[in-house]
């Protein structure tokens, strides 16, 4: 008997749940039903098996496509999934859509979630050797030194400028090629580049800087609001726009997820983004009083919300010698060049995060019912992966992540956090909750200021930072769709529960259980 047949044999013996429409607090009631004829159950079992096999056939097709491109080295024409909600070709519910009022469908999904929970195991990962990291990213390690200037709070160093001082230092920058916003910023930088070169003997040097801190996640958890408030602080500077995505995407040549691979962005292109802040830091180091910010000890921030979790490019670039788990993660490379970096993580109830993510990135035909169907399909795909591979393998499985209609994996916060804690100390990572930030912004911002060792503010500036309206809130059209269905919320709470329990235990804070109701933002 196969695993699928066994599941349905269990369903025959268990009471089924039917929808009770006039009871919103208890959508489903337990009712005993008579055993249906064997012929009907056999047909249902065959349909379920066909649907499940269809999911795995889709995964296999995508795997073979990716493998063929990897083996031939033809990555530029390999299309990545444009968003998690455009993968209808491989995740097809078949001719009969998921029936929300069907007790059998509800019971089936509940058993899928129970099966997933039984396979939740948090194992340790091996830390890669620095030599292996250098072997895979030799150019990056040749550019970034192992030690930074001792007199600057921000990690900076002087790099010899080998080009023509009258030439265009940003002419080849790929950020400028693909972004109008960066082109405008580089036009302004180009005009002042020469005056910021430091001359020593017959050589010219430019100050290079990396971020002092990173806002690394998670998507739809309030990172934009935190970014907008932090950039109002006079001691903080960011790049031209919030998310360069260099560590997770541009470094591998991913510009837009709807396109294939392009030229990989070299680390110099990433460092160029911090030149405006580097100029202020340079003036501070040289005591140049002609610049208004020269007396301030500037630090640089970077706010790509993909940094904590997005390792989808690994399968194309790194050898898989770890049974489906990435041999290297983003944090391994960050730690190798910046062992003292600081990180801010904003989290929210993963159930609400997933719905917000669906509403924000979905394009057409959005509804609570459609969300429910996509959640059900994604849970079955995730369970299928866990039947063969480890939890970490499935969380970082690029094929699975692209196939799931909703991004379930982004809400598995503890999996990512534990992996970050393998290379960084706990006191280097500040973890906040969106729910706390929404109810008391002054408190959370003071925690951030203390974490970054920022200087004192005037009352007027502090009020400007903490009392401004929230950023990137839910769009009116999405609000009109209403909340998710109660049954969907119940299923998702059961799915995320073991992960939240581990998170609360690691952080020693029961608020990360999200046992109560969370506010929308």
UniProtKB/TrEMBL annotation:
It holds the Pfam family Sulfotransfer_1. It comes from the Eukaryota. Residues 214-474 form the Sulfotransferase domain. Gene3D superfamilies: P-loop containing nucleotide triphosphate hydrolases. GO terms for molecular function: N-acetylgalactosamine 4-sulfate 6-O-sulfotransferase activity. Keywords: Membrane, Transferase, Transmembrane, Transmembrane helix. InterPro entries: CS_Sulfotransferase (IPR052654), P-loop_NTPase (IPR027417), Sulfotransferase_dom (IPR000863). GO terms for biological process: hexose biosynthetic process. Its EC number is 2.8.2.-. It is an enzyme of class 2 (transferase). The keyword Transferase applies. The chain crosses the membrane at residues 52-71. Belongs to the sulfotransferase 1 family. This is Sulfotransferase.
